[in-house]
Write the structure tokens for this entry.
Amino acid sequence: MTVDDSGSGEDAQGADSGEDPLALRLEGLILGAERRYTPFQAARSAGVSMELASRFWRAMGFADIGQAKALTEADVLALRRLAGLVEAGLLSEAMAVQVARSTGQTTARLAEWQIDSFLEGLTEPPEPGMTRTEVTYPIVELLLPELEEFLVYVWRRQLAASAGRVVQAADDEEMVDRRLAVGFADLVGFTRLTRRMEEEELGELVEAFETTAADLVAANGGRLIKTLGDEVLYAADDAGTAAEIALRLIETMAHDETMPELRVGMAFGTVTTRMGDVFGTTVNLASRLTSIAPKDAVLVDTAFAEELIRTQDAPASEAEAAEEAAAAEKEGEEPPAYRFGLQPMWQRPVRGLGVVEPWLLTRRDSPS
């Protein structure tokens, strides 16, 4: 049984089950296979227990389907591959489930974005009287192979970059618990905006913010960890890179009249990485500093400030910088070229983290 335009086959199956015939045709087109198996049959054909198959299926983000005949040969092959990695000793069972979960969560968001923001626009009926239904199938048929190739290309590029960072780690512990600079950038007054703006305007603002932030983070050598609507979380291997990103975010948003003010909080220290996300006290501290940062300003913790001083990206104080400049001038030499300035702020208690001393980060030269 194959997917065709005759309304038979899977369309007839859809009619019997109450499912939309077009949805079934699209499923067949995208998956490239027909529904043949119940979950039990798929697990048996893959040579895995029903319990393990269910764990993999849920980890990928799919709902329980009882014993409906809804799975394809591709589902069986995926189960067989994951189970094979476990049997070969390349992955533990727990790690295989993590692979399924991380892949499922990442691609689920990508798929939702492509349908909501991309496919909807392309499937607007080109002529009066045509329905979106009549346009969707041929558009997907044309786009599918190109999008699939591009997805694999980007994944390989990201995998190469991530593998490079891992092999440069000093030891095995650093591969998981690493010293990173972590930053949160937060739109000020976003909650008030949600009450004043139309939903479409709000969506455009959030998309513009996330796009601008993602581009700046990537262009300046950081990694975007996740976006949370009015907030982005990013990380960098060194404090200087993270500081440059933070100030460029502030400077760029300040020149956009459609954007609210921005505030950034950053911390430097040991960070635990799991499934592309980051956790730990350093991350919590960066988040807390963001909540107390002034508008259009960047606050960093003491460890971050000390790292900038250690790498000579910032002077210990402006007085010390002035002394160094005077000494260099006396000797006929060039003074140290510090990129950033640091101003200690009042110590204050931060919920859950005790008393911290924030530092205000500024730029000492003009951005290139």
The CA atoms of residues 57 and 129 lie 41 Å apart. The two ends are 61 Å apart (CA to CA). Strands lie at 177-187, 223-227, 231-236, 262-274, 277-279, 297-300, 340-344, 348-350, 354-356, 359-363. The longest strand covers residues 262-274.
